[in-house]
Write a structure and sequence with these properties.
Blueprint: H1 2-9, H2 15-25, E1 31-36, E2 39-45, H3 49-57, E3 60-63, E4 65-67, E5 71-75, E6 87-90, E7 94-98, E8 103-107, E9 119-131, E10 146-151
Antiparallel strand pairs: 1-2, 1-10, 2-9, 3-10, 4-5, 5-8, 6-9, 7-8, 7-9
Length: 160
């Protein structure tokens, strides 16, 4: 009967735990807007530990910086380790988090260390979201412009 004792003494999960489970239950429905200066895109979060940490930390406010002519990045106050799937070479449209520099990056073109036909990041970075809009709009962003990352609140479901 130790099992019966454990079952009867277990507490229901805390409300915070239930919210976190709900957020992870539908990872494809997690959308954000990333605004830098006068431009904005929407992005869908992936099902990764970094995406989960960023989702819980939202909203994020920072200041835009540029790396060459191919990446906008901004500082965060997150702590997330490097994932096994971290990449140095990426495609336009991915949103990355660099654990070495504690920054979110939006690569859209050649960086200072890119070779022909590639986008090479500063260091291995975790891909945590995919842009739903054209990331090349970030070419117009200037250093020092304000950046905001916010949740896109979903519309209430019908019939409930």
């Amino acid at each position: 009967m130790p099992t019966e004792y454990l079952r009867s003494s277990s507490r229901p999960p805390a409300k915070r735990d239930l919210r976190e489970r709900a957020a992870r239950a539908e990872p494809t429905s997690r959308l954000v807007t990333i605004q830098a200066g006068k431009v904005s895109i929407r992005a869908r979060l992936l099902d990764t530990p970094t995406a989960d940490r960023i989702w819980r930390a939202l909203p994020i406010f920072s200041t835009a910086e540029l790396w060459g002519q191919g990446e906008v990045f901004f500082e965060t106050h997150l702590e997330s380790g490097r994932e096994r799937s971290a990449r140095v070479i990426v495609e336009p449209g991915v949103i990355v988090y660099s654990p070495d520099r504690d920054v979110i990056g939006i690569p859209f073109g050649r960086t200072p260390i890119s070779k022909a036909g590639e986008i090479r990041l500063w260091s291995p970075s975790n891909i945590w979201a995919e842009a739903l809009d054209d990331v090349s709009v970030f070419r117009t962003v200037r250093p020092g412009e304000k950046v905001e990352v916010r949740r896109v609140e979903s519309a209430p479901r019908q019939g409930r």
